[in-house]
Amino acid sequence: MSILSEPHFHNEDAAFERLEAIVWPSGPVCPKCGNCEQSRITRVSGATARIGLRRCLECKKQFTVKVGTVFESAHVPLHKWFQAAHLLASSKKGISAHQLHRTLQVTYKTAWFMAHRLREAMRAGELSPMGGTGGIVEVDETFIGREPGKERKRAYHHKMKVLALVDRATGQARSMVVDNLRPATIAPILRENMMTEARLATDEAGHYLHIGREFAAHGVVRHGREEYVIGEVHTNTIEGYFSIFKRGMKGVYQHCAKKHLHRYLAEFDFRYNHRSALGVDDINRGSNAMAGIVGKRLKYRDSLAGAA
Ligand SMILES: [Zn+2]
Predict the structure, then answer these.
(1) Residue 205 lies in domain
(2) Prediction pTM value
(3) I need a surface site. Which of 28, 110, 275, 294 has the fewest CB within 10 A?
């Protein structure tokens, strides 16, 4: 049986119930006055009432779980949002706006918009530094696409640069777009994202040498000398992460503007950090993305304005 046979992927009433369970785990909350006294909120029923309509007896306003969220303004049925979130969260390499457009039977523009909203929802909020209790954090960089305005040259000068960290103990990845790989660019990122008691594992790239001294240890594998594993020191975990990212970017998202790259990184980080090996199944991964959409509703309007 396909996972997509669950009712909330097809039935709007079921989709509302599902979203309510995510947004209101302790019952409805009035978005106007904040009333959450369940005896002071009633369900509005009747043939003409919208699905999920509630009435607050404190401020007399009516609302649904969609009020104030992207789901209210986008005019896409909620069950299609659930499908989109599920598809994006469960496709290992991602899913193109074109594929979403065909599968969900919404316009391409709507599909593009939904995908970017979901990516934004997948972006992690405040994150604590990695490598607590002396764990190993692998750090590496990769190159992709084309840096805007840069002439094509040898090596990686003209490509967009991505820096990523993987905490080997928790299996969590964190990646970001960087403008260059100068030590002055890399050092503050590592300071912000790693505990000083962490042990750093990198290849021999010069930009890690100086900052490496600020951590409990810095193990280096010299790929140029075909050294790949020295005891615990290797960067195989992060290279595995990059290979999923690159396969997805090449296979699914061929053209990605630099201004959107961080959103794709958020999507790949999200799937990696909620992967089955860490005990998250496909359905929960999709629900997590939907929960993120609600949590980020206010910031979103600004961040995407004019981006299309
Ligand atoms: Zn109220």
Answers:
(1) 136-262
(2) 0.86
(3) 275
